Amino acid sequence: MKIDIPYCDSAYEPKRNNRFVVRLPELFDIQEWMVSTCTYPKYSFTNNKWEDIIISFRDPIYPSTSDKLYHLMKKIQKGITFDESITIETLDPCGVTVEKWNIEISKILSINFGEGNYGDDNMKTLHLHIQPKECRLVWAEWEHVVL
To answer: Are 133 and 105 in contact (CB under 8 A)?
Structure first.
């Protein structure tokens, strides 16, 4: 039975959680495919600021994400300052960007190098905890979509 919903276009395509790519600064030296999850920007009206962003990574033997995050940690410990941003892009079914967030990094709060667990044979996961300075939805164009 077909239900006619006048306010819903037949070309409706929801955004999917698994259609995204995170583009990190060159300084990080981490490729996009190493990212397994990320939190999107979240604004707190209680604190009047953007909440922290967490990016989780796969950790292959080579190239080692642990090694890359360790070297990033060492650069931060040496006092390197960087005015960098991270981009989170939401993709359509064909891989075309339909939404783009630009996240200016205020500081890196922590790096979690994972855990060992004899009862778990899942892939090792690492976590990067970032405090954003500013988050901007810089692109959400629909003009290119043919309905």
So the answer is: yes
Token pair 């642990």: residue: 66
Q: Count CB neighbours of 34 within 10 A.
A: 21
pTM of the model: 0.86
Sheet strands (E) in the chain:
20-23, 35-38, 43-44, 49-50, 53-58, 85-91, 97-112, 125-139
Check residue 5 and report its DSSP letter: -
Task: Select from 16, 31, 39, 20 the least CA-distant residue to 127.
Answer: 39
Give residue-wise pLDDT tens across range 51-106.
999 999 999 999 999 999 999 999 999 988 778 999 999 999 999 999 999 999 99
Closest CA to 40 of 13, 14, 21: 21
Token pair belonging to 103 = 């996240």
Tell me how far apart the alpha carbons of residues 54 and 61 are, in angstroms, rounded to a whole number: 22
pLDDT digits over 15-59, tens only? 999 999 999 999 999 999 999 999 999 999 999 999 999 999 999
Domains (ranges, CATH) in the chain?
A: 20-139 (2.30.110.20)
